[in-house]
Amino acid sequence: MNKPADHPPIPPRRVGVLLINLGTPDAPDAPAVRRYLAEFLSDPRVVELPKLLWQPILRGAVLTTRPKKSAHAYQQVWREDGSPLAAITRAQAKALEGAFGPDVVVDYAMRYGRPAIGDRVQALKDAGCERILLAPLYPQYSGATTATANDKAFAQLAAMRWQPAVRTLPPYHDDPAYIGALKRSIEESLAALDFTPDALLTSFHGMPERTLRLGDPYYCQCHKTARLVQEALGREVILTFQSRFGRAKWLEPATDVVLEELPAKGIRKVAIVAPGFSADCLETLEELAIRGRESFMEAGGTHFAYLPCLNDSAVGIDLLRGLIARELEGWVSLQ
Predict the structure, then answer these.
(1) Handedness of CA 132, 133, 135, 136 (dihedral sign)
(2) How many CB atoms are closer than 10 A to CB 315?
(3) Cα distance between residue 111 and residue 20, in whole Å
(4) What is the mean pLDDT of residues 280-299?
């Protein structure tokens, strides 16, 4: 049966893949950082306090003082093509174009900031994607990362009359392909150094300790990743947690404290890697590579190296291609 003459255009059926990462301000200046932090720190999955208690604090002390300091940090790592996190995630999406056949569209979005998740879900649907794989690029699951990214996509679905079918990428903290990719990347980075580290640190983003008691699996998944990396490398690693914020008790041991204590223990050469991040960002390039180095050297260290994330390296893209292909099974023929 032919379509009516006034029928709207129907795009060819496609499958969408949406890579999702945390987010970033649009520019390394205080106004842009303020907008970003207002969105980020207003997420009830990130700050689990009653709004009536938290919002006055956020709108007062936090958004008055923190944006200028954070903008200075962003300025130290900003690239010609923008924020490292956005630029790398964009490069990952571009590297995966065509990897799953001509009928699979690969796009990317940020949970906070732009491109917004809801906008890109709608764009994929408008492009004919009747099936969409949401791929939050967090190896370890947390309500404050994976869950809130999916929440935002589901909110867009709730507003759509014709919803696409949806799958979500599960955490891959103990996936052999992920551990193998980390092993290869770490070994290549260590081989390029002009010194042999006395210790190797694996630094994961911190979370308030109460999230563990409330049932979040993040802490346990970080420990399992570190243990498997240690076994794969055949050398001890020291697990730490970074990026503490506020007065609440956070997961320990803290990365900055450990770095300051190591030289007194005779460990003066260290390398540090951040296996919880799929792409380098402010927390790795400024907090670890710059401030971490400074604190370690001031405490008596002599050699320090930050080892990059998997990013859009060949090994990193191979990992993403394999993880995504697995989740597309039954939707796409990759023979």
Answers:
(1) positive
(2) 15
(3) 7
(4) 98
The three-state secondary structure class of 317 is helix
Compute the Cα dihedral for 123, 129, 131, 136 and give only its sign: negative
The pair of structure tokens assigned to 313 is 């390296």
Instruction: Give the torsion sign (CA, 34, 35, 40, 44).
Output: positive
What 3-state class would DSSP assign to 88? helix
Helices (H) and strands (E) in the chain, counts: 13, 8
Mean pLDDT for 75-90 is 97
- The answer to whether the beta carbons of residues 104 and 17 sit under 8 Å apart is yes
Q: Judge whether residue 37 has pLDDT over 80.
A: yes
What is the three-class DSSP state of 269?
A: strand
What is the layout of strands, in order, in the sheet containing 14-23?
104-112, 14-23, 129-136, 165-168
At 118, the amino acid letter reads: G
Q: How many CB atoms lie within 10 A of CB 72?
A: 14
* Distance, CA of 229 to CA of 251 (rounded, Å): 20
Alpha carbon 55 to chain centroid, angstroms: 25
Place of tokens 């590297």: 95
Three-state SS sequence of 91-153:
HHHHHCCCCCCCCEEEEEEEEECCCEHHHHHHHHHHCCEEEEEEEECCCCCCHHHHHHHHHHH
Contact at 8 Å (CB) between 181 and 315?
yes
Tell me the per-residue pLDDT of 245-262, one tens digit each, with 9 for 90 and over: 877 899 999 999 999 999
Rounded to whole angstroms, the Cα distance separating 293 from 270 reads 9
- Spatial neighbors of 230 by CB under 8 A, at least 6 apart, are 236, 237
Calculate the alpha carbon distances from 67 to 2, 64, 115, 171, 236 in Å.
58, 7, 21, 31, 38
pLDDT confidence of residue 163: 97
pTM of the model: 0.94
pLDDT at 335 over 70: no
Cα gap 329→335, rounded to integer Å: 11
Q: Is residue 169 within 8 Å of 136, Cβ to Cβ?
A: yes
Which residues lie across from 305 on neighbouring strands?
271
